[in-house]
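call fold(seq) -> tokens
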Amino acid sequence: MRFLVLGAAAGGGLPQWNCGCPNCRDARSGLIPPATQSSLAVTLDGDVWAVLNASPDIRMQMQRCPQMHPRALRDTPLASVLVTNGDIDHIAGLLSLREQTPFTLFGTSEILGVLADNRIFDAVSTQKVTRRAVELDQGFEILPGLAAQVFPVPGKVPLFMEGDQVQTDLVGEQTVGVRLSDGGRVAYYIPGCADVTPELLDRIEDAGQLFFDGTLWDDDEMIRSGTGVKTGRRMGHIPISGPDGSMARLQGLRAGRTFIHINNTNPVWHPDSPERAAVRASGWSVAADGMEIEI
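ret:
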């Protein structure tokens, strides 16, 4: 399996259009590389690809990656898209894939229901783009020879569906992780996760590679930086740091480990930061646009 990080950042990207935080300023000035919104592509043969989450930046991402360019007048190496939740930063890119080229769109019934309830997504013609509902813990083929399975991880409904009361540890079809296997090697993609539960640890113990939610370093990072009023856990994301953070909870996992879906405020963006050093010392890497990983 070969993975291509189309986008490493969380919603808003780096720099975020309306943000003047230190990371966004440094990204604009070239001190740190900019990053587009989270999306991951996978292939077995280098010719046919599946994309995990359709970022709002997907047109730019595909344009700058020759692997994703058309090979004929109307053509694409893209065979399928799988969405892991209904968040805007994971579904809005579908609207850029509306030009009547066939592919298969995978998602749980609940996630596909979010698309069905928003008529703007009718622009992605169901006559060309097959919407295929997949069940939790049931295998399906996302590419020829590449088996996939989605499974529930703690999370919440998309921001635009929130009511007065928000449950951030829902376990069901609204937020899923993805298991990928070519029959030998196994990888997991979990870009949004509110908690690393014992059940999740047991599930991913066979991982050869893990792409995991790296949204915030500290739970109160956005509050302290003045960029928001919510904690990471309130947004449905476990922080990286701390005794109950993802780095500590996943320290026993014997796999390649990469943080993805990283918020613009996260100090791990800086290669010389103590937070990046701590990540490296714990055996993790930090995703970057264009990064390739093969297992």
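Residues 64 and 243 are 39 Å apart (CA to CA).
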